[in-house]
Amino acid sequence: MAGGVLARRELGLRPADPSRPEPGPGAARRALLGAVLLVAALTAVLVLPPIGQRPVDTTDEARFVLYAREVLAQRALFDVRLRGKLFREKPPLYAWSIAALSLPRGRVSEATAHAPVALAAIGVAVFTVLLGERLFGLRAGLWAGLVLATTLGFFRYSQVLLPDMLVAFFAVAAAYWLWRAMAESAGRGALTVFYVALALAVYAKGPVGLLPLLVGIVWIWSQDGPRAVARLWSAPGAVLFVAITLTWLLPFLTLGADTFASTVLWDDWLTWYAGGPGRAALRVASDALGFFLPWILVFPLIVARAVPERHSPAVRYTLLSCLVPVLVVLVSANYRTRYLLPAAPGFALLVAWWADRHGSERTRVGQFIGWACLAGGALATAALFVGSRWGLGPRWPDLRGFWLALVPLALGGWGMVLSLWAGLRGGRPALLVGGTAAAMVIILGYGTWFDLKRSGERADVRHLAARLERHANSRQVGVLFETGWLEVDFYLGRPVREIEAELELEAFLARDGGAVLASEAVWNEIKGHVWPQVRPLERISISGKPFVILGWARSPD
């Protein structure tokens, strides 16, 4: 018994109560399965309903969707061209998953583009539960899954059509198998699975998928010294990693005339992520505050307990799983908020560990945070009320309808505030975690429905494509002095031409008689230098910015 308690303490687990018998293997497995199913169901309730309702509205999203459409159309996995250029900027796993889900109906849609991301989000939550149970016990694993599913940034990027969530899924799976291999002596098979998950993370987005390996190296080095890093070596794992990676890397290296190593591996990947800090640390810290809401509010309490207990292998592993991705973001040449996503499971595990081990403690800092949350909720409510009375709030034709629409969000917000206040003030971690998670389900679920309802009333890229098609009348469409707009290609069903000169604009419209999209600022600058037949056919606002649709007038005024 003493050896078992000592082992649990060394791993950072709560010592077992000698007065209570340990549950049998069958009961433990059933309890774990119940926790996994609960978190999976909660995450599914949040991330699945919006599938198919969000438009493909950025070029970053559209390139994967168009890649998938070309895979279906050409029956080619690698030789895929967007606007006549080979697409090699990102590995193809996400695009292939879209194409695979599109096979039954034979066409790519918003739903088949969103489904891989949403399913990956559920997978991230499930593996967070599994890893938390291995690190700190069942209750901590369950709470980690609830925290992750209701973290604002995690939910936000479960709704964006990019491969980052797939990277997060394979990364947390790799973290799970690495812990089992290194700390639990699960055998070399677990280490082999780690390298397979690592290869799939790279398959989804490139070098960022190697973050779990970096975490493992830093963790083992800091625990046992540099020589201990050799324990990470696995011949079968290395062979499988190389074999899986070469299935897409070799075709990318051999396709096209451009040098993949210099134009993509170096320019688009390595220098993009590691070319020196491109953003101030203050900006990253500011984004992190929003990304990890609402759980970032207890971060001072976590730090106060995690730092003294960092010598525990489990606590150290969890700390590094959160901090290493954030530090990599800090040195990134081209920072994006979504780069914080790989840190989300580690952060959720830290919150769950603190709540399980120390959440019942009533500290002065905890009391201050609880009262600050209560005061913040009151101030936010007052500001919203005063702002709407003074005309400073969102425009709403019916003020009564505005207030009715806000009732669920207000209930969710106050549920979150009161759960944090009561949980911190009374040392009740179950109320803090469970109540805050339940409130966030209301906020995120209703907020998403509310946003989709209102966005349907606003002009979006589908509306833009329809207006361009109306003026082009099945002829070619162009964009003036701009790159991107691949999302228009998707909704038009054909490539948009990029026009880079005034003479090219005149020739394009005179020959093809189609339509050209241009910003109003560009049009005001060039309209005195082009033929009078080039005229604006319609003005349109896109994301609050004015644009014009240009066409060819048959006879000048």
Provide an overview of this structure:
The structure is a single chain. The protein is mainly alpha-helical and 557 residues long. The chain has 3 domains: 25-267, no CATH class; 364-455; 461-552, D-Maltodextrin-Binding Protein, domain 2. It is 64% helix and 6% strand. The chain contains 23 helices and 7 strands. The chain has helices spanning 2-10, 25-47, 59-74, 93-102, 110-136, 138-149, 152-157, 164-182, 188-205, 211-224, 235-254, 260-274, 281-291, 299-306, 313-330, 344-358, 364-389, 399-426, 429-455, 461-472, 486-492, 502-512, 520-526, and strands at residues 81-82, 85-86, 477-480, 497-499, 515-519, 534-542, 545-552. Strands 4-3-5-7-6 form a 5-stranded mixed sheet, sandwiched between helices. Strand 6 and strand 7 (545-552) form a beta hairpin. Helix 3 crosses helix 4 (93-102), helix 5 runs parallel beside helix 8 (164-182) and helix 14 (299-306) packs across helix 16 (344-358). It is globular, with a radius of gyration of 26 Å. The model is unreliable at 1-13 (pLDDT under 50).
